[in-house]
Amino acid sequence: MTQSIGDWSKYLSKEKEKDYFISLYSFLNSRINSEIYPPRDKWFKAFEYSSFNSTKVIILGQDPYHGDGQAEGLSFSVPKGVTIPPSLRNIYKELDQDDVDFTEPGHGHLRNWAKQGVLLLNSVLTVEKNSPASHANQGWEVFTDQVIHLLNENKNNLVFLLWGTYANKKSELIDTKKHLILSAAHPSPFSAHKGFFGCKHFSKTNAFLKSTSQELIDWRLPI
């Protein structure tokens, strides 16, 4: 965990000493000749942008994009200049239909959300080129489940956006007396029509933040 993770280190620094994390890094080092996404300096980018203290919304993805140049350490996000992936395009469609101020920005870079306290967290933080889920079950899930546990235990009035069957399983880690869970189908083209479109999660998030005296998320993205 060489990348700076700010105030998260208070909560996560002990993880790197645990057997599962040592085993995870041993696995990652053994794959050094493979092309791993995102680059090593972006594995923990979500924590760098959204500090523990500022985090109030969590959007949980599964694992990073596995195409060249796509993954940048933030779930669903891609760098400017990279084609907007289908799931993110559907997220934009839902935003456009929801009761929030949003205009399609022409890119898929979501840093502006992260800077406002939206933790864009993948359950698995690395993947190999053109090989989806290639780093699943190597330890990342233990680490990111611990992130969810720490947020659940140490904060109040968080909003968890859980899209799809995989993300919805994480609801078991969340105390619904302390936090709001918003569940829907995954925004993938294969499932978005099964309940993601029309979920209005973005306006519902802001309604909850307003009701708990928190600053709303500006879902607009700079062009």
Can you give keywords for this protein?
two-stranded antiparallel ribbon; alpha/beta; 223 residues; globular; 4-stranded parallel sheet
Short description:
This protein has 223 residues and is of the alpha/beta class.
How are the SSEs ordered, and which strands pair?
Elements: H1 9-12, H2 19-30, E1 36-37, H3 45-49, E2 57-61, H4 86-97, H5 111-114, E3 118-122, E4 127-128, H6 140-154, E5 159-163, H7 165-168, E6 180-184, H8 201-211
Parallel strand pairs: 2-3, 2-5, 5-6
Antiparallel strand pairs: 1-4
Describe the structure.
This protein has 223 residues and is of the alpha/beta class. The chain contains eight helices and six strands; from the N terminus they run H-H-E-H-E-H-H-E-E-H-E-H-E-H. Strands 3-2-5-6 form a four-stranded parallel β-sheet. Strands 1-4 form a two-stranded antiparallel ribbon. Helix 7 (165-168) links the parallel strand 5 (159-163) and strand 6. The two termini are 32 Å apart.
